[in-house]
Amino acid sequence: MKQALSTEQANIVLHNEGEEAILVEASAGSGKTRVLTERVRYLLTEKKDKYFSVLCLTFTNKAADEMKERLEKIPKLSERVFIGNFHDFCLQKILRPRRHLIGLQEMPHIFEKRDDLKKILLDTLYSNELLKEIYQFSEITDTKEKEKKQTALVDKCLNFISESKRNLEIVPEYTTEWKNWGEKNTFLYKEYCTKLINQNAMDYDDILLYAYRILNENPQIAELCRKDYQYILIDEAQDLNYAQYEIIKTICGTSHKNVLMVGDPKQAIYSFNGADTIYMQKHFIEDFGAEKFEIKHNYRSAQKILELAQNIQKNGGIGTNFFEGIAELFAFEDENEEAEWIINKIKYWQEKGIYVEEGKEEVKEDISLKNIAVLARNKYVFSKLINYLETDEILKDKFYLRKGVEQFEPDSIFMKVFDLGLRVLTNPADTLHYKQIFSELQIPYLLTEERIETLLHLKKTDILTENALQTIVESWKKLKENPKSLGKILDDLEPKIDSFEIHEEELQKIVFDISQLQKYWNVFIRQEPYEKQDINNFRYFLALNSTQENKEELILSTIHASKGLEFEIVFLMGMNQGTFPDFRAMEKGKKVLQEEKNNAYVAVTRAKRCIYLTYPKNKTMPWGKIKKQERSIFLENFLEKNEI
Amino acid sequence: MNILIDKIRIKNFRALQEVEVDLKPITLLVGANNAGKTTLLRALHTVLGVSKNQLNKDDLFIDKSGHQPSKSIIIDIRIVSIDENGERINTFEQPWRSRLGGQEIFQIDQQSKEFVAFRVEYSFGREDTPLPATYTLITDWGKEKLGDEFKRISNIRDLLQMYLIDAQRDLQEDTKSRNSFFGKLVSQLEQSYEEKDLRTLQALIEELNNTAVSNSEVLSHLKEKLSELNRTTQTRGEGVSINPFPKHIRDLHKGMKVNFQDNGSDSFGMEYHGMGTRSWASILTLGAYLDWEIQRRSELEKTGKEFEPISPLIGLEEPEAHLHPNAQRTLYSQLKKFAGQKIISTHSPYIAGQADLTELRHFYKAEDSVVVSQIDLTQLDRKEIEIIKSNIESSKAEVLFSKGVVMCEGETEETALPIFAKAYFGKSNFELGIEFIKTGKFYPLLTLLRFLKIQYFIFSDYDKPDVKSTLQNILQKNSISDENIIKLNDETTQKNIEEYLYDEGYHQELRNSYKIVKEPIYANEQHKLAKQTDLEKEHQRIDNLGKEDFLKELESWKAKVASIYPYLIVERKEENERIPPKIRELFEKISEKLGIKPS
Fold it and tell me: Is there a contact between A221 and B98 if contact means CB atoms under 8 Å apart?
């Protein structure tokens, strides 16, 4: 559907012919993706001098895909504009082509799973006597207590490392005490990094850190980028973190000012990742002399929803909408009731199939499962609902829990081993996953540099039948010969499964895992040119993937993962004090509480026509006790509508 | 601002096992047949040509034992940015920058200069089937460090548009083909007219057709008979019409002919001209096409419109084919004016002779494989370079293609030695491929000859002390043994060539040649008879001069007599006296080194 731009949108699109820095503060539903898209279209088609490229950084792959789709008719689009998220850009355009400048001969592989990073960390802790002693907590005798402390310490260490990387900490090679870190922290950070590099691996944070190092240590590369990307556009700028902002600054140097940032401070919800609105609201204006624009009008949500948004966030619900809409609040005795009611309401809408208002019958909105979403502050709120959905005749296979990053996590040992093998095939230096193969198979692993050869000669294990193991090994061999053949190999696997002589239930898991991997592979080959369709590139795709297929399914999502999405009908459940706002936030004070408010604002503004807010008055605790619940503070001025 | 392929590296391709060649805006490839000149052009064309020519396993390099030491052909190409004078500059300008690719394909060398380089690898699978070529970025040219896959090869092909003009070109054939430059150019005919003019022309053609048919009984008759067709097919259109001239402007080029009038003769169609003219015309058409394309773009650029830039790359095989030497000379200056980068293989001294020395690349076989060298002029000063140039010019550039070169200090030797050589070998020095060149006592030409791997000999007077010491220095500096050096004198004597000949017993020939030179020009026979007595007196005087007086008097005539006395000497009865000993020594050396038999 093509609508004309509003005057305030058009002003931004055409402002100063794309030159000079501007900051656009745009409320939810105000069409900021459209502004970005049209700005790119304007630059690529209307500018006289056509010899430049545009860099357009989005927060999610979904936003990038949407923009690309809308611009696809522009000739040579992919040559003239890079549209993608920050990590994609740094990986493809900086790190891959320039890695040798920071001494990386091979392209590092991404260790994307937190469990894997934990193992690297444990390795690090055990490699130093002092750290080992701390980790062992030998003064504590209670095993449970000890485990709890250890888990907390691991999290603390990983957070420290991640935060330091996001702060672009580069510790010089022979430094044993960096800044005020002390020897132990310095060792921890450096050793962890070394352990990754030794396996030719990196974590997410490394992608930005390496890209920054390349640009910062090689001004001529930053200069090349500056010459190429004459126009830079950044979406969701309220969630920029230090590393991302520094990368942009390094690319721009002092001369490049043609940067446009779009963001909404009211929607800033990623501070736990180091994001801060200060980069957009303060530094960008100071460093680039950005001129500020505002678009406050929400074109997305119906009138009632706007009122609710306004209620939650100042200036959060500006606009007038054709539809009146529905915004209702319901309280339930307990979580079971809440879940049952939501399911019934979903079925009601599914059956009805359209949204229409009295007196406005000329406009109808189609309703189906894929434009209905249930949102909550955290994923544990969904537990009861998921239980009910799983046993519901109609909805049991028609919903999925949306994650920030979709990962392929096989359930069956067969496919786990197969998948781990793919990692080693593409990265022979990967000892972590090499070892995991042996621990999955419960056989002692072989210390060797010839890892691939060793895997290709695996013979016997008690965990898998000989037939199954041989099938894996044969598949690996074929993949080693021809890294592009994964699709065919997966097709060939299915008929062989019958001969594995393993338990029925395990077989089912295998079939499911194979079909999952096939799905990812199919998405991958659809978006990559033929020459890039090998398992190596597939691994990067898997690691950075957040593409969901547009399935005809109900979406359950945390608010964080719903960023940038919109639905006709939204259920916002578990609206209890302590859950939302989160009890930790309530202890931490104003700034964090404001971010909780932003969360509520984001949640509410996902809805186009209807929003149902629900909460249980009582909750059953994991240990069986029933605990009384209070209504969320965000709903203070909102009247309950009790239909029960 | 332009772009240039400044380096190409070829491995395992036909005659070339491994060569790296520097290229300039215009580069001339010289060297013997089968030394790989054409192979270089083919390599570039395989990578950059518009029509893809599939390589096969026979294209792999074969060593002398008959093996193919490597199973893949590698072609590396480096592209740099240059200014108007063809000098490399630091950065690429727009629009080249964005058309070459995104920032990620640009590399920066040690001198902070940008370049784009990539490797193309052709390999062969089972049953020797060619596998798809792979393209990889080169991040460090010298160390051959490779980066990621290079995805913009089609951009490079569009930008560089390599045209390979082989030796079989022919304008007559070109006029028949839509794909020739002639065809490409004239097929733009319709678009080149203004709308108004197009209509006028169209009307004129129609009128022309009508008149031609109605005024011709034959055609009118034919038209009438053919109109029977209308009845049988019951068409509603205009039915049969006969068009002696093409009906539509867009078809005009199909019957287009090029006529060419030589001095005084009638103007003939191309088919009546010789291959020389046809070949030359074909090359000029390419020039016309390129100029047209470039001009069109610069107009677009001026009006601020988008355009696809091109920097054409022209590979030209032996442009001299079928052409008269005078025409060959003109050809080089015409080629030089063509837009784009030119790489020309040639055997023509007339073309190579006009090139800048730094534009020459010499292909030669060293032991088993082909080596390509370029001349290093950094050791020479400007004056020496000038001498080399004038040497090339005075030899009509034959020096570039000769088998052997004899360098001498003065004009006397340059004149006299070829006459003796003809007598000794029984063939002219042109037939033998030997050049005699006066270079002065510093022999700057040596640099060029060593680059060209041409066998050289020095015939030195070795008379005055400074001549002796200079020669010794040059030999020492270039570490040359005196194997190919003939010295007229030993360390103690200081004879010039005339004195040497005098002492060797050729004084009568010297005196006689002097007499001929001194002979006045008579108005007529009577005049000659009247002066007979004077003349005899003069001859007597010359015969009676003592050695010293005679040589002194001869000094100012020595260049002239040099073209005479050799003829007298070689007429001697005694065969072994026909060539003076030092000169014989030189010829024996040449005979030995070049394997040429005396007659």
Answer: no
Asked if the structure places residue B147 within a domain, the reply is yes
% of chain B residues with pLDDT over 90: 36
The parent domain of residue B455 ranges over 402-594
Q: Are residues B83 and B204 in the same domain?
A: no
Instruction: Choose among A51, A98, A529: nearest Cβ to B98.
Output: A51
- Whether the pLDDT of residue B167 is over 80: the answer is no
Given CB atoms, is A332 within the 8 Å cutoff of chain B? no
* CB-based contact A97 B148, cutoff 8 Å: yes
Contact A93 B147 (CB under 8 A): no
The rounded distance, in Å, linking the Cα atoms of A565 and B19 is 58
pLDDT digits (tens, 9 = 90+) for B57-104: 889 998 888 888 888 999 999 999 999 888 999 999 888 888 888 899
Q: Identify the residue among B90, B91, B103 best suited for mutation to test binding to A, counting A beta carbons within 10 A and taking the highest.
A: B103
User: What is the number of structural domains in chain B?
Assistant: 3
Give the highest mean pLDDT range of A93-97, B378-382, B439-443. A93-97
One DSSP character per residue, B377-396 reads -TTS-HHHHHHHHHHHHHTT
Cβ distance A50 to B139 less than 8 Å, yes or no, reads: no
Task: Assess whether B356 and B229 both reside in one domain.
Answer: no
- B162 and B179, same domain (yes or no): no
Residues of chain A with pLDDT under 50: 1-2, 643-644
CB atoms A80 and B98 under 8 Å: yes
The whole-number pLDDT of residue A465 equals 86
Residue A1: predicted pLDDT: 38
Looking at the domain assignment, is residue B135 inside a domain? yes
Q: Domain boundary at B235, B253, B278, which?
A: B278
pTM, whole model, 2 decimals? Answer: 0.80
- Same domain (yes/no): B556, B460: yes
Contacts of B104 in chain A (CB under 8 A): 92-94, 96-98
- B contacts of A532 (beta carbons < 8 Å): 149
Residues B146, B186, single domain; the answer is no
Residue type (1 letter), B238? E
In a domain? residue B463: yes
Residue B97 and residue A97: Cβ atoms within 8 Å? no
Q: Which of A228, A230, A256, A533 to mutate to test the interface with B (most CBs of B within 10 A)?
A: A228
Same domain? For B121 and B199 the reply is no
- Note whether A542 contacts B: Cβ–Cβ < 8 A: no
ipTM for the complex shown: 0.79
Between strands B404-408 and B455-460, the pairing is: parallel
Q: Which residue has the higher pLDDT, B495 or A462?
A: B495
pLDDT for res B255: 65
Q: What's the average model confidence in pLDDT over B38-51?
A: 88
CA A271 to chain centroid, in Å, comes to 14
Looking at this protein, which amino acid is placed at residue B63?
D
Contacts of B99 in chain A (CB under 8 A): 51
Q: Are residues B164 and B191 in the same domain?
A: no
CA pair distance B167, B262, nearest whole angstrom: 24
Band (B199; pLDDT cuts 50, 70, 90) = confident
Range A473-476 contact pairs with CB under 8 angstroms and sequence separation of 24 or more: A475/A418, A476/A418, A476/A421, A476/A422, A476/A425
Closest CA to B169 of B47, B350, B325, B321: B321
Among residues B278, B302, B333, the one where a domain terminates is B278
Do B190 and B307 lie in a common domain?
no
Query: Which among B97, B104, B114 has CB closest to A51?
Result: B97
Spatial CB neighbours of B559, under 8 Å, sequence gap ≥ 6:
B411, B412, B415
Which CATH number goes with the domain that contains B102?
Answer: 3.40.50.300
In a domain, B390, yes or no: no
**If residue B413 lies in a helix (H) or strand (E), which one and from where to where?**
helix B411-425
Q: Which run of H or of E encompasses B342?
A: strand B341-345
Contact assignment for A93 to B149 by CB distance below 8 Å? no
CB spacing of B108 vs A221 below 8 angstroms:
yes
